[in-house]
Design brief:
- The protein has 253 residues and is mostly helical.
- It has helices at residues 4-21, 32-42, 47-68, 76-96, 101-126, 136-153, 157-164, 171-195, 201-210, 213-227, 230-252.
- The protein has one domain.
- Helix content is 78%, strand content 0%.
- Helix 2 crosses helix 11, helix 4 (76-96) crosses helix 6 and helix 5 (101-126) packs antiparallel against helix 11 (230-252).
- The longest helix is centred in the middle third of the chain and has 26 residues, at 101-126.
- It is globular.
Amino acid sequence: MTELPVILLVGFAVVFIGLSKAGFGGGLGMLTAPLCVVAFGMAGQSPQFAIGFLLPLLCAGDSFSLYHYWRQWRLENLKYLLPGVVAGVIAGIQLMDRMEPRHFSLIIGVLAVSFVVFQLVKEKVFKNETPFVPGYGSGTAAGIGAGLTSTFAHGAGPMINIFMIPQRLPKEVFVSTRVLIFTWINWIKMPFFVGWGLVTLESLKWNAFYLPLVPVGVWLGVWLNKKIPEDKFRTLTYALTLLAGLHLIFSNL
């Protein structure tokens, strides 16, 4: 029988999916992968199982967000990124298949810590940048990075931000375009995850149990946006992501 701490940790991670899809908590979604890896590790499951478990729930969360931001996106960003995304996902799957669980956990930990560092310095890095016009060169490079990091830890956020922030898009267009990009990235991964046995009948049973928490998280994110200062919550999110990442790093060295 699965222990209660495992059930609760995974539940929190799934709620975080909904919160992040509602636009609350900054990079809260990045916490879901390391948290699930830790939780499922307590239950004797591999990191690959945790990553496969998350993908259908992320696709469900994308559908809620896509409806909310329908047709507000800048579509050309998608065509510049997708060729690199496909290449990055294929490369990531090939590499993942050759990794031991310990090495995979270590990579997820490094990505989590790197995400926090990026969030802390991105404003200074992009502060004085003038808007740039995206193209296939920059899009393919960013897409490969996004495909790799998304395959390993569903953590493409920093790579997509590096590509999009310098464009200086209006807030609604920026958020809508990110939603569209992540929707495509996650569905591109799906057949590869199924084919390589990352999404399985067992993981889908877990999905069915936790799926109702995704819209709950979306609703909670909308409510929290109106009730509490997001800056304080974002700081807590980064702290938890950093701790989860460090735990995965040091426990797998």
